[in-house]
Structure formats: C-alpha cells, structure tokens
Amino acid sequence: MTTDRPRRPARRAAGTDTGWDRVATWYDGWVGEHGSAYHRELAIPAVLELLDPQPGEEILDVGGGQGVLVPSLVEAGARVTVVDASRRLIAAAGRRHGGLRGARYVVGDARTLHAVAGLSAGSYDAAVLMLSIQDIDPLADVVRGLDWAIKGTGRVVLLMTHPAFRQPRHSGWGYDEGRKLRFRRVDSYLTPMTVPMKSLGGGPPTRSFHRPISAYVNALAGAGFVTDAMLELPDLPPERRPGKAATADARSQAEIPIFLAMRAIRG
User: Fold this and answer.
1) Beta carbons of 100 and 71 less than 8 angstroms apart
2) SS3 letters for 92-141?
3) What is the pLDDT of residues 2-16, one digit of tens each?
C-alpha cells in the first residue's frame, strides 16, 4: 500500500478531517464480518491479551469502525460503546453486530469525545484504539478525550502499525547482496509527520500520522497513564499472509514487527 520513496513531511492543518467515510464501503468489504486475517490472527488477540476485559466492564472502542472487536468484548461479558467519525462505518457496525446485547454504536469524533452525544465523563473502565490511532490527529486531543471518558482507575490499549519499522513511505525492505541478508530500511523515525496514503479501493487517499513511540508514552503520561506493557507482533507466516508473499522473506518478517500494542493504566 506504500512506496519506499521518502517524501517531505506534510504540514499539519488544524481540524484536519481524518474520517474514513469516503472509503467506508471498501474498508467494510475488506474487514468483513470477522475481520481480515491480520485482525483475526494478530490485532484482536493482542488487544484482548493487554485489555483483559472483565464481565460488567464498560469499554469504549474509539475509532472502532464497523465494530470488528465488539463480538470478542461482548463474549467476555463487557459492555461496549463504539465511537467512529464515519457514519457509514457506524451504520455497517449496526448491520453486522446490532444484535449483540451490551453493544451500541455512536457517531463521534475521537478528538472531541466530550462533545459526543451519549457519552459521559468518567464512565468507562477502559478504552481501546485498534488500528485507528495513527489515522487521528492531533494526538493531544485524543488523549484529552480519553482522560475525560475513563474512570480514575482505568486503562487504555493502543494497537498500531509499528512506528519504528513500518512508517508509510519512509521505510521499506532492502537486500544486502554481500551478506545475503534482507533488512528493513528506516528513513525517518523521530520526526512526526503527516503521510498521504495510496488510494484505497479507488476512493480518495487517506492520511496516516507518524509519531515516535515516545510521543504516545509521553502524551498518555501527561494524563496520568503509565505505560506498563507492550507487545511487538511479527507479520504472519507467508502461507497465511493475504495476497502474494515470498517464502524467502519469512525470517526477516518474523524478526521485525509489523504491529505494536501497548497498555497504559492509572489509579
């Protein structure tokens, strides 16, 4: 979905529209009822491991799209509120998972959670942002909303493409002919940047917001959350990877993670 040629970091604009309404049809079709292979085998298991949802807990799924995480949380006995800026994805969530008890779906901006109808301050035991935090900017506004929504003893779980190794358009695979070794090239890491992504499903391009890991840890710390656990997830084996995958790169893919999951707690 990306190229390896570096681009100049784009300047951020205040109030940038980061919603996925324009590509909702494509995204819903790709994710489907139970999630893509990456959702099912990597993202959802990692989120559940860190979150450890308990019966009766109130979970806020921020940027939850069509609710692919909802069945797992409901099965654990939790009650779930999915918030997403895309009306079309929230409508898809209602169609796909509307019959699950204890789940509801709300249209709202992750950057202004305090203004979302149906949400109230300090009502949630935990919040999850699974594969959504890197599509939302500014980060400070998101964390401010999490601080507002989560109880004083709550927790946050984030899962994202790994910022240190998988920056869109600023990282890629290479091959060292002398050492006969595949390696991961990283062109930029510490500089926060807005990156235009390749058009999805023929729709308009989306944007990704790259930040170093310290940006997430420090932003959460500013709201009283202490990062206490991380998981770094390698790619799927070639035989389970969607699309064409070369078996020769299995070793390098297994050593350099594709996703980073992190948990922060307070109280």
Assistant:
1) yes
2) HHHHHHCCCCCEEEEECCHHHHHHCCCCCCCCEEEEEEECCHHHCCCHHH
3) 333 333 333 333 445
